[in-house]
Amino acid sequence: MGLRDDFPDLPPVWAAGVFVAQLAAAALPFGGLDPGWARPAGLVLLVAGIGLAGWAARWFARRRTPIEPGETPRVLIVEGPFRLNRNPIYTGMTVALAGAGLMLLSWPAAVLSLALPWILGRRFVAAEERRLREAFGAEAEAWLARSRRW
């Protein structure tokens, strides 16, 4: 099933959708988390996730290559957070959503954060990796082999 032509098919839009689902899940009567540890831990994850995503996004600007999925990359970024993780922005968004779920004191909301890497992996990651291989050949293959997807 395809998306409407006017749907902004971008990772942050999908992350916002997962967050709305988390809010709905938090309202369900599944029993809550211990607020003594969940909110502080959630805050740490939320801040760490936003920080990781922001740090990675700055590398796109620094290297002057498009950040938008679907654009042809001009530079293969292998520095900073990309040394170990191919998708630090997506990982950061997922960590931030896990933190939001904990801050909502809801196990279902926290678990829903795992929907984001599933969605992004199917909507964006394979195509992004293909574009990297096409643009950078053996250099991309070597980086893809030594870095983790998530």
UniProtKB/TrEMBL annotation:
Pfam families attached to this UniProt entry: PEMT (PF04191)
Membrane topology: Multi-pass membrane protein
InterPro entries given in the database record: Phopholipid_MeTrfase (IPR007318)
The entry's keywords: Membrane, Methyltransferase, Transferase, Transmembrane, Transmembrane helix
Segments traversing the membrane: 12-31, 43-61, 89-120
One cellular component (GO) term of this entry: endomembrane system
Subcellular location: Endomembrane system
The keyword Membrane is assigned to this record: yes
GO biological process, any: methylation
Principal location listed in the UniProt entry: membrane
Record-linked Gene3D superfamilies: 1.20.120.1630
UniProt KW Chloroplast keyword: no
GO molecular function, one term: methyltransferase activity
Annotated protein name in UniProt: Isoprenylcysteine carboxylmethyltransferase family protein
